[in-house]
Amino acid sequence: MDDRSATRLPARSARSVRAFVVVALTALAASATTACVRHAEPGALYDASVITQDEIDSAHAVTALEAVRKLRPMFLVSRGQVEFGSPNALPNVYVDNQYYGDVTTLQGISAASIETIKFYTASEAQYKFGRGNAAGVIGIFTKH
């Protein structure tokens, strides 16, 4: 028996190894492609709670509601009941740090006038804007 034959894998094992390598490389390529979807400035950190003007422009949104639905639909998810017996709560909307209304008012805000949109969690919203924001806040900051 030859020393080389003792270290050879059986044909079936070699095929399994090749198949594993192909699957692993395919998964790696797919994850690299997905990771490249969001382009940020070199050294900049991505913040999922903020929608930038560049993102709004690239989404070709007409209204703030359309921008949020396309870019961060989780901003519009109900936070459940905030008080016993109350309906499911949605975030309030503030424009330039002033109360503007509920999420339906996003339909009336032109996307072209927006610099950034930021989602504040319940605790952030209560601290920054006061009581009555237990479902969070969608903050719209306009171009001046």
Give an overview of the whole structure.
With 144 residues, the chain is an alpha+beta fold. It folds into two domains: 3-35; 50-142, TonB-dependent receptor, plug domain (Ferric Hydroxamate Uptake Protein, Chain A, domain 1, Beta Complex), CATH 2.170.130.10. 37% of the residues lie in helices and 17% in strands. It is built from five helices and five strands; from the N terminus they run H-H-E-H-H-E-E-E-H-E. The chain has helices spanning 3-7, 11-35, 53-59, 64-71, 122-129, and strands at residues 50-52, 92-95, 98-101, 114-120, 137-142. The protein has a five-stranded mixed beta sheet with strand order 1-4-5-2-3. A hairpin with a 2-residue loop joins strand 2 and strand 3 (98-101). The longest helix has 25 residues, at 11-35. The radius of gyration is 25 Å and the shape is elongated. Mean pLDDT is 79; it is low at 32-38.
Quick gist of this model?
By secondary structure, the protein is of the alpha+beta class.
